[in-house]
């Protein structure tokens, strides 16, 4: 039997997402605070860290962060982002305009360069 104290930190490495979700659900049901950390050696995880940094630094709204993530991770065009989010194309264009303004970029290429920086 494993008894965990109030400040016990356990780190598990589970590569299978389905298994990791099951373990997290079980620990959560037992009352433990569960946090899933990304694999920092993956490009996607490093890219997400860069997106998160831009979101925080430039005070993007949650929806702007979602739009930025779909653009950066998926390379989606505005119309594809609109379909993914179930919103009008004009709404996505407005979010992109706000993202360009807040990040002091003028277009998608400049935005991507701002996110990626020297990481890749």
Automatic annotation (TrEMBL):
Keywords: DNA-binding, Transcription, Transcription regulation. GO terms for molecular function: DNA binding. Pfam families: GerE. PROSITE patterns: HTH_LUXR_1, HTH_LUXR_2. InterPro entries: Sig_transdc_resp-reg_C-effctor, Tscrpt_reg_LuxR_C, WH-like_DNA-bd_sf. One of its GO terms (biological process) is regulation of DNA-templated transcription. The keyword Transcription regulation applies. This is HTH luxR-type domain-containing protein. It comes from Plesiocystis pacifica SIR-1.
């Amino acid at each position: 039997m494993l008894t965990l104290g109030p400040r016990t930190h356990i780190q598990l490495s589970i590569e299978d997402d389905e298994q990791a979700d099951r373990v997290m659900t079980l620990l959560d049901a037992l009352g433990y605070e569960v946090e899933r950390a990304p694999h920092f050696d993956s490009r996607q995880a490093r890219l997400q860290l860069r997106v998160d940094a831009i979101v925080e630094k430039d005070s993007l709204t949650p929806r702007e962060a979602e739009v930025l993530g779909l653009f950066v991770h998926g390379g989606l065009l505005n119309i594809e982002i609109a379909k993914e989010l179930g919103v009008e194309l004009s709404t996505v264009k407005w979010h992109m305009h706000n993202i360009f303004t807040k990040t002091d970029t003028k277009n998608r290429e400049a935005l991507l360069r701002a996110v990626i920086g020297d990481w890749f």
